[in-house]
TrEMBL record:
Residues binding GTP 1, per UniProt: 10-17, 57-61, 119-122
Coiled coil regions in record: none
Gene this chain is encoded by: der
Organism classification: Bacteria, Bacillati, Bacillota, Bacilli, Lactobacillales
Name listed for the protein in its UniProt record: GTPase Der
Species for this entry: Dellaglioa algida DSM 15638
InterPro entries membership: G_ENGA, GTP-bd, GTPase_Der, KH_dom-like, KH_dom-like_a/b, P-loop_NTPase, Small_GTP-bd
Alphabetical keyword list: GTP-binding, Nucleotide-binding, Repeat, Ribosome biogenesis
């Protein structure tokens, strides 16, 4: 089942990002140790009582230089368009303001459930002031204090109660992929070219997740794909669609729903910061990844062009060392036929399962060749390993003491696993646990 989406709306300064961070908790960690990847605080995953959901801070989506009221109107509109449940946040300190009423008017037009939360209720005395907010017309207000973490549990109980009974299931018979990248790298051109090559378009699948429209197609070889809609490909004609943050949000949502993500770069312009940010999120989300260098026709090429470009990518995207790189042109169609087969291969690797006996042979061999580290005379002992998950493949290694597992040794084990099995295109996770 697709995860429900919760959006927080409200005028500036009521505490949206404070409450957002409180709910998202430790889960925001967009490739922290990756240089050049800034944290994006508008979208996060969270979980309450085993119910997973995605969270959007609409306040983080700035709508260019538009006047204040246009900004909050657009942000409320994003919440209505994207969310299953809307949290309308106000502040007890200022009471009901004109701007709150403006937001309320827009939310009336939505048939999505709206929960009114009054923030900055830091002490019992201010609780009695929350009743003024009944006038906004959203029923009982929930008192919270984002900075002190008060009332957040009750608010989450109410949010999860309002989730739709059944968010539509994804169609798992098809390999789901998306193309992400900066504006102008050639995503739409690639989409059209890929669909042009694979003429057996089955159908646009409507309503898979809200108003996303996926395109299903089958190749001549009989492989079944579903291409997920991303920003800039199908516009719905809303003002906010042209803002950068919104396109980042759409890309993140598309990544969440994908098995394999095609990170599209522009050969003509080289690698930019924004490329790294979105690629970092795809990596963090544990998706299969292929780096697609488009507009390869625009370069004057010599014998080194390809290897130079590749070396540059390997350096700039060091954390994506597992991702295959393909150089294409949407215009001349160079190498486009390779894309579906590459997606298929990466998808297989992303779902690969290794039996415990084979895995343990590999790990024991690795240990025999490169002895485990010691600390103060105490040696790391590896007892047993097993694969606990796919998509991405995740391995648990049971040891005598997790503190003895150095980062470099974990890397070594990961590399041994990669050389023994085909995990091209997928991140893999190695987790150590102490054997009880
Ligand atoms: P946003 O513009 O709605 O995202 O608001 P912020 O989260 O940036 O918060 C605005 C200001 O309100 C900041 O100075 C916060 O520290 C403060 N703030 C947020 N939550 C609380 C709260 O629960 N109690 C108090 N007293 N201040 C808060
Ligand atoms: P998007 O914003 O990422 O969807 O990019 P578009 O598909 O709209 O392409 C942006 C521009 O780049 C358009 O003018 C395309 O014609 C051009 N373009 C796209 N792919 C290629 C390519 O492979 N080679 C060349 N020379 N131009 C391309």
């Amino acid at each position: 089942m697709a995860n429900p989406v919760v959006a927080i709306v409200g005028r500036p300064n009521v505490g949206k990002s404070t409450v957002f961070n409180r709910i998202a908790g430790e889960r925001i960690s967009i490739v922290e140790d990756t240089p050049g990847v800034t944290r994006d605080r508008i979208y996060a995953h969270s979980e309450w009582l085993a119910q997973k959901f995605s969270l959007i801070d609409t306040g983080g989506i700035d709508i260019g230089d538009e006047p204040f009221l246009t900004q909050i109107t657009e942000q409320a509109q994003i919440a209505i368009d994207e969310a299953d449940v809307i949290v309308f946040l106000v502040s007890v300190k200022e009471g009901v303001t004109d701007a709150d009423e403006k937001v309320a008017k827009i939310l009336y037009r939505s048939d999505k459930p709206v929960i009114l939360a009054v923030n900055k209720v830091d002490n019992p005395e201010s609780r009695q002031d929350i009743f003024d907010f009944y006038s906004l017309g959203f029923g009982e207000p929930f008192p919270v204090s984002g900075s002190h973490g008060l009332g957040v549990g009750d608010l989450l109980d109410e949010i999860t109660k309002k989730f739709p009974e059944n968010v539509p299931d994804e169609d798992d018979s098809r390999i789901k992929f998306s193309l992400i990248g900066r504006p102008n790298v050639g995503k739409s051109s690639l989409v059209n070219a890929i669909l042009g090559e694979n003429r057996v378009i089955v159908s646009p699948i409507e309503g898979t997740t809200r108003d996303a429209i996926d395109t299903a197609f089958d190749t001549d070889e009989g492989d079944m794909f579903s291409m997920i809609d991303t920003a800039g490909i199908r516009k719905r004609g809303k003002v906010y669609e042209n803002t950068e943050k919104y396109s980042v949000l759409r890309a993140m949502r598309a990544i969440d729903r994908s098995d394999v993500v095609l990170v599209v770069l522009n050969a003509e312009e080289g690698i930019r910061e924004q490329d790294k940010r979105v690629a970092g999120y795809a990596h963090e989300a544990g998706r299969g990844i292929i780096i697609v260098v488009n507009k390869w026709d625009t370069l004057e090429k010599d014998n080194h062009s390809l290897s130079d470009f590749e070396a540059n990518i390997r350096q700039e995207f060091a954390y994506l060392s597992y991702a295959p790189i393909i150089f294409v042109s949407a215009i001349t169609q160079q190498r486009l036929t390779k894309i579906p087969e590459l997606i298929k291969r990466v998808n297989e690797n992303h779902s690969r399962r290794i039996t415990s006996s084979v895995l343990n042979d590999v790990i024991m061999d690795a240990v025999a060749h490169n002895p485990t580290p010691t600390d103060n005379g105490k040696r790391l002992r590896i007892y047993y390993s097993t694969q606990v998950a796919i998509q991405p493949p995740t391995f648990v290694v049971f040891v005598n003491d997790t503190d003895l597992m150095h980062f470099s040794y974990e890397r070594f084990l990961e590399n041994q696993i990669r050389t023994s099995f085909d995990f091209e295109g997928t991140p893999i996770h190695v987790i150590e646990r102490r054997r009880k």
